[in-house]
Amino acid sequence: MTAERDEALAEALVAVRRFSPELAELTEKTLFGDVLARPGLSQRDRALATLSALIAGGNAEQLRFHGPRALASGLSGAEIAELVLQMAFYAGWPRAMSALSILAEVVPAAGEEPPEISVG
């Protein structure tokens, strides 16, 4: 992970660490340290899989963190919008619409500049 990504992850884990230091440690070391660093998929492909799983599972709030990470991993805003459209038919319209409302806050629309958000 880059220093910028380390910083964003550390910020995201502040509340987690306060209530469950063990969960924060597993998230940081196992998920972000081991699993996401495996060579079997590119970071871009992992970002697509993560966004898809979050949308399908109805975990739209997590997209505030993972949307900017997907941009930093090489996805464009247009590709993320296309993914949401795809998920509307496979995961359900309400889940896609909930995801869209969060992603619209953290991912630029076509032709717009990215918002000032840490993409760690």
Short description:
By secondary structure, the protein is mostly helical. The chain has helices spanning 3-12, 14-19, 21-35, 43-56, 63-72, 77-90, 93-106.
> Helices and strands, in N-to-C order?
HHHHHHH
CATH architecture classification of the largest domain: Up-down Bundle
Query: What is the count of β-strands?
Result: 0
Strand residues, percent: under 5%
Distance between the termini: 8 Å
Structural class: mainly alpha
Secondary structure topology:
Blueprint: H1 3-12, H2 14-19, H3 21-35, H4 43-56, H5 63-72, H6 77-90, H7 93-106
Helix pairs in contact: 4-5, 4-6, 5-7, 6-7
Describe the protein in words.
The chain is an all-alpha fold. It has two domains: 1-38, no CATH class; 42-114, AhpD-like (Up-down Bundle). It has helices spanning 3-12, 14-19, 21-35, 43-56, 63-72, 77-90, 93-106. The radius of gyration is 14 Å and the shape is globular.
Give short descriptive properties of this protein.
AhpD-like; mainly alpha; 2 domains; 7 helices; 120 residues
